[in-house]
Amino acid sequence: MIRLASWIVGSLVIAALAAWMISLPGTLTLEVAGYRMQPRLGVAVFMFMVIAIVVIFIWAIVRRIISAPRAMARRRRERRREQGVEALGAAMIALQAGDPGRARSLARDAQARLPSNAAARLLEARADLALGDMAAAREHYRALIASDQTALAALTGLYDQARAQQRPQAALTFARKALNLAPDSAWAAEAVFNDLAQRGQWAEAVAMVNAEQAGSREQRARKRRRQAVIETARARESETSEPLSALEHALTALRLLPDFVPAALIAARIHINRGETRKAMSLLRRIWRATGHPDIAALYGHAQPGASAVDRLKRMGEIIEIPPPHRAAGMALARAAIDAYDWVLARQALAPFAGPDATQGVASLMAEIEEGQHGDQGRAREWLARAVRAPRDPAWTADGMVSDEWEPVSPVTGRLDAFEWKVPMIATMTATTPPDGGLLAQSSPQPALPLAPAPNPT
Predict the structure, then answer these.
(1) Residue 243 in contact with residue 235, Cβ under 8 Å?
(2) What is the pLDDT of residues 245-261, one digit of tens each?
């Protein structure tokens, strides 16, 4: 309704202006090629306006005809560009769908239609890499390195190619170049960090971790754990040669992760070697209450050098209640009681855990008790037979490998902080087995040696 009213008002205004213009007084004399005209002033103005409109219209047609070839060329370029973009998108979809051959063909088509588009060449290099054409992929990537816009993407591709070809040094070189080019590159920083960890360059590794930006709570927790693991690795490395420095690193790790068992074990051993038994026992008591780790209990029992088996059992009673609150506590107490020939206490400590779900460790200890207390070879063999089929006890495990001690890096993959204290699913190789000549460990334990008569407790 408003638009109709506006149109009517506008029409009336234009009509009024035209009528006013035609009714203007006076005449205008025009002489052209011997012809003389004397129209009224309003009519002459109107005629001039009509002639101007006709001239503009004719010029627009002439201009359209003149610029037609240029417009057609521009339209062809736009159409070519649209086809190139469509081919590029189809190539990305094909590569993601697992059809690298079609992806490469479409990428070449896109590159022909979009010569200045580096994404087409990068996509072709990715397709070559997926097809196994390493030489072609390398040429594409090396050509893309020259441009600042595509250098990081090219180095990423070269890094992936080097890893696929099992060339770790070349991959590390590309990662270092990418890190120099883009310090915020996550994959490059991770690759360089993993190399430092594998080679034991802990000072440089911890410097990289310290420089990391941690915004969220998860990132801060991950950063603290990495720092603690590296500090523990440094303490482990220098525990024998530089015990004071090792103690400082271990305590730093404990400040970052207060319940980190490997760091606590190193710090406690150094305290014990320095004659600081009270500090060691205080630290071990705190970690035992927090974790219940059997290695902590074992070291606590041996915190006093030269102590007798009876003294070690008394010391173990300071941190383990009767009945023991969990299996690790029961096994640790039973081990100390067996060493002290307190068979009743040893049997009492294992009683809650010696049922049908007894683990290998519990079954082996029960075999020792039966042999040592009553000399019952038959019962001992029964327990050893159960141990063969029993569930495994927790151990330090990383990438299928079981180790007697914690290590900062997995010997299989070189991954930092790979070892976890858990029940191993499948035991593949012990950490002390040579990788080239050792036998694979079976999932069942080795047969136990015959139990010899135990000596008198000291």
Answers:
(1) no
(2) 999 999 999 999 999 99
Distance CA 302, CA 312 (A): 6
Q: pLDDT by residue (tens digit) across 354-391?
A: 988 899 999 999 999 999 988 889 999 999 999 999 99
Asked if omega into 243 is within 30° of 0 (cis), the reply is no
Under the banding of pLDDT at 50, 70 and 90, the label for residue 150 is confident
Q: Exposed, middle or buried by CB within 10 Å (0-12, 13-18, 19+), for 6? A: exposed
Residues 6+ apart with CB under 8 A from 256: 224, 225, 227, 228, 231
CB atoms within 10 A of CB 214: 13
Q: What residues contact residue 196 under an 8 Å CB cut-off, 6+ apart?
A: 202, 204, 205, 208
Distances (CA, A) of 444 to 294, 327, 430, 441, 447: 21, 20, 13, 8, 9
What tokens were used for 217?
């709570």
Rounded to the nearest 10 degrees, the angle between the axes of helix 294-301 and helix 327-339 is 30
pTM of the model as a whole: 0.67
In three state form, how does the secondary structure of the chain look? Answer: CHHHHHHHHHHHHHHHHHHHHHCCCCECCEEECCEEECCEHHHHHHHHHHHHHHHHHHHHHHHHHHCHHHHHHHHHHHHHHHHHHHHHHHHHHHHHCCCHHHHHHHHHHHHHHCCCCHHHHHHHHHHHHHHCCHHHHHHHHHHHHCCCCCHHHHHHHHHHHHHHCCCHHHHHHHHHHHHHHCCCCHHHHHHHHHHHHHCCCHHHHHHHHHHCCCCCHHHHHHHHHHHHHHHHHHHHHHCCCCHHHHHHHHHHHHHHCCCCHHHHHHHHHHHHHCCCHHHHHHHHHHHHHHHCCHHHHHHHHCCCCCCCHHHHHHHHHCCCCCCCCCHHHHHHHHHHHHHCCCHHHHHHHHHHHCCCCCCHHHHHHHHHHHHHHHCCHHHHHHHHHHHHHCCCCCEEEECCEEECCCCCECCCCCCECCCEEECCCCCCEECCCCCCCCCCCCCCCCCCCCCCCCCCCC
| Phi (first) and psi of residue 297, to 5 degrees | -65, -40
417 dihedral zone (left: phi>0; alpha: psi -120 to 50; beta): left
Burial 12-46 (b: 16+ CB within 10 A, else e): eeeeeeeeeeeeeeeeeeeeeeeeeeeeeebbbeb
> 427 to each of 57, 386, 439, 440, 442, how far by Cα in Å?
90, 18, 12, 8, 6
